[in-house]
Amino acid sequence: MPEKLLEVKNLKTYFALEDGGWAKAVDDVSFSVAKGETLCIVGESGCGKSMTALSIMDLIAKPPGKYMGGQILFHGKDLLTLSEKEKSSIRGNRIAMIFQEPMTALNPVKKIGIQIAEVLQLHEHMDKRKAMEQAILMLKKVGIPRAEKIVHEYPHQFSGGMRQRVMIAMAMMCNPELLIADEPTTALDVTIQAQVLDLMRTMKKEFHTALIFITHDFGVVSEMADNVVVMYAGQIIESGQADMLFERPLHPYTRALLASVPFIDQDKEVLHSIPGTVPEASKYPEGCRFAERCDKCHPECRKKEPKLQEQEPGHFVKCFWAGDEYCQ
Amino acid sequence: MLNYILKRLFFSIFVLFGVATIVFFLVRMTGDPVAIMLSPDATQEQIDQLRASLGLDKPLIEQYLIYLGDLIRLDFGRSLRYADSAFTLIIERLPKTLMLAGTAMFISLCVAIPTGIIAALKKGSIFDQGIMALSMVGQSMPVFWIGILLILFFAVDLGWLPTGGYGTVKHLVMPAFALAFGLIPLVTRLLRSSLIEVLETDYIRTARAKGFMPRAVIFKHALKNSLLPVITVVGLQMGALLGGSVVTESVFAWPGVGQMLVQAITNRDFPLVQAIIIMLSAAFVFINLLVDIIYVFVDPRIQY
Question: How many interface pairs between A and B have CB atoms less than 8 angstroms apart?
């Protein structure tokens, strides 16, 4: 077992509601990432993927957000117990993050170069000129032409793909041990998506960075992942090595997700779609949270909540069915 | 950019022409200046003579054309009351008005920017609610009333400051603060709401993800972005201060342009009123242009 870099244990991130209740955005989630490994977190919108990532970075707005329990261990040290100053020294330095919307994630009134270089000035106390040189080198690495010129330009002068490259350059400046990418390709054109994925793989290899990649696209998962965590309604419902999960998906939700991916070599008339939507985080049903939309739903599923259980070595499922037969 | 400025300057000529026309006809509705200038027992002959010497005997349209002709040559006419060039009279008083307006604006920004930032950072806290409540009170108090309260307290009761007039720094304190009282709440509230909006944007989250502490996030990433609406309002208010300190200047007997305007209106000193209004409008137009130019430096997305 390779050394664990990040270990999330029973994390609960809730949001206070006006009526006094709680929206359980992340509800008892545990997973770990080893050095240099890529973990994909998959699920529909609103199932808690981004909130899990933002919790690791502690970028949750508090209030209304609150950590109701659990640990986020980075090199064995619980990030949730650190002071703001200690957390700031890790953010952007040892754990970096890139976001879904490159169009809005960069500051519109600051030059690209300054936005990249300031990471080094902040964490490595480099002087501005030297940091700027590093920024130019990094921009070249992420495949941006005319980097010497571009550092003096503003984000609005770039396309989405270029901005995402800038974001990646910014995230890699301090050579982080862990990079969290929150749907970094969702907002991009398909051709640009492929380029950005390629770039992320190259950067990961070059910098030996571990990666948490959040996506709802199984195509991306199959290209990137070593391990996969499938989330639904704030919980992990299936996790395991990527090839295991693709070969033998056990949870009906994972199966449904995989069935809804179009494959070019399949002659499907109509793509599979999962009926209904993810329940609201404030109104989870009793029993299994997926029961309402599950084609294998058993009366028992609505009464009792299944536990996340290891079905085969390293493959965990939170379902009474666990594959084909009902196994209570 | 230069093209844009030239274009704006060109169009401002039309604005000023409009102002000049309106003020010309408006002041003539206020009555006959000769009636005030001569004693009640003046003979008709004396009245006619004075009227002729001031050019007021000519038909209104002819007077208007002469007035426009003078304006084109930048001749603002002679004050009826002071028998001096209106332009010279204004230039003499302008520094005093600028000093008052500038000091008031400086005080306002010094107070409003930090309070706005703190209120935005502590949104919803007791401090924030207190600031907002105080702002409401401050904004709803008319400046002449604040002026009188200040005079009563600091000049009459405590005797620390002179009741009015011009000369030393002590004379400047009360009128400047009276003006600032109205501005501080305005800028505070604006900056607060603008900053709160900016703090919720994605690029602020990026800045936090980079490892900036909350205070550094404000100063390095949020403040500049939230200043745009503040700059607009500060510019407009600065324009308003130049002419609008009329009340304050009157309350504190501050010998500025505003006070002279009030006197000129009472005296039906047509050329002086016209000249002051045109110059204040020109200042307003110029400040607006300046604000638009400053935008370019604050937000690179804006281009002309």
Answer: 72
Q: Do A92 and B210 touch (CB under 8 A)?
A: yes
* B212 to A108: CB separation less than 8 angstroms, yes or no: no
pLDDT of residue A178: 93
Reported as a single tens digit per residue, the pLDDT across A168-223 is 889 888 889 999 999 888 877 888 888 888 888 888 888 889 999 999 888 888 88
DSSP codes joined into one string, B249-292: HHHTT--SHHHHHHHHHHTT-HHHHHHHHHHHHHHHHHHHHHHH
Question: What are the structural domains, with CATH classification, of chain A?
Answer: 4-94+174-317 (3.40.50.300), 105-173 (no CATH)
Whether B68 maps to a domain, the answer reads: no
pLDDT (tens digit per residue) in A121-149: 999 998 999 999 999 988 988 888 888 99
Interface test with B, best of A54, A109, A151 (most B CBs within 10 A): A109
B136 in any annotated domain = yes
Q: Do A91 and B298 touch (CB under 8 A)?
A: no
Phi-psi region of A320 (alpha: psi -120 to 50; beta: other; left: phi over 0): alpha
Q: What is the CATH number of the domain that holds B99?
A: 1.10.3720.10
> CA torsion, points A141, A147, A153, A158, in degrees to nearest 10?
-60
What's the domain count of chain B?
1
ipTM of this complex: 0.85
Of B206, B213, B299, the CB nearest to A109: B299
Across the interface, of A105, A119, A170, the residue whose CB is closest to B202 is: A105
Q: Where do runs of H (alpha helix) occur along B29-85?
A: 33-37, 44-53, 60-72
